[in-house]
Amino acid sequence: MDVVDHPERDQAWDTTARSETEAQRLDRNWLSLLQELRVVQTGVQLLTGFLLTLPFQPRFDGLSATMRVIFLATVGCSVGATVLLEAPVAMHRMLFRRHRIESVVSAAHRFAYAGLLLMGSALTGVTVIIFGAVAGPAIELPSVALRSANLRLQGSGQGSVGPADYLAELPSLVDAISNGAIAVKANTMPLADVEEAWTREERPGERTVLVP
């Protein structure tokens, strides 16, 4: 598909098949473009208006930094599409009665292509934002899914490092403790107070140790 407009290449066919003059062909092309622009202009204007009101909604502050970048890119695409899809009307008014209909049709053809491309990008961005806002950053997995699927969870908590790796790092850890590079203050509590110890807040560098 050629985005560059070459209406003169179809003039011979239009003359034979449609019995059209060049002026009649250009008028028909312009009317066809106007019909297409009327369809998409309403949609892109509603989309732009919707996006411009989102920052004033209470839940907008909950968007992550990534979602905010996507939102700004989406707004830019939507506003750009609005400008490009309305530009042919402004150009037609500026060149009215100057016998430049061929330039208007050719430029409007390019504007429509670019505007539709930006509109598609804006719709994609809106879809990503809506899915991200509805789904949220967390996921809930039922226990039956964990039991019935071959699922492996990895992290940095207890059990994320194997015994062999612990043993390999143990000598350097002992040396660091002996040299005083690692100092941990131990707060002892009776085992009978385990419930209180469990909910107790510890300051950095402190550990609670339960004793019999």
What report would you give on this structure?
The longest helix has 35 residues, at 101-135. Helix 7 (194-199) links the parallel strand 1 (185-190) and strand 2 (206-211). The chain has a two-stranded parallel sheet. It has 212 residues and is mainly α. The protein is built from 7 helices and 2 strands, in the order H-H-H-H-H-H-E-H-E. The chain folds into 2 domains: 7-135; 168-212, no CATH class. Helices cover 63% and strands 6% of the residues. Helix 2 runs antiparallel to helix 3, helix 2 packs parallel to helix 4 (101-135) and helix 3 (65-94) packs antiparallel against helix 4 (101-135). The model has no long low-confidence stretch (mean pLDDT 79).
What is shown here, in short?
With 212 residues, the chain is mostly helical.
Task: Quickly list its features.
two-stranded parallel ribbon, mainly alpha
> Total domains, how many?
2
State which percent range the strand residues make up. 5-15%
Number of strands: 2
The low-confidence parts are none
Task: Output mean pLDDT.
Answer: 79
Element order, helices and strands?
A: HHHHHHEHE
Query: Mind describing the biggest β-sheet?
Result: 2 strands, parallel
- Counting copies of identical and different chains, the oligomeric state is single chain
Overall geometric form:
rod-shaped
Strand adjacency order, main sheet: 1-2
Helix content percent band:
55-70%
Structural class: mainly alpha
Measure the end-to-end span.
81 Å
Q: How big is the Rg? A: 33 Å
- In DSSP terms, counting alpha (H) and pi (I) runs of 4 or more, how many helices? 7
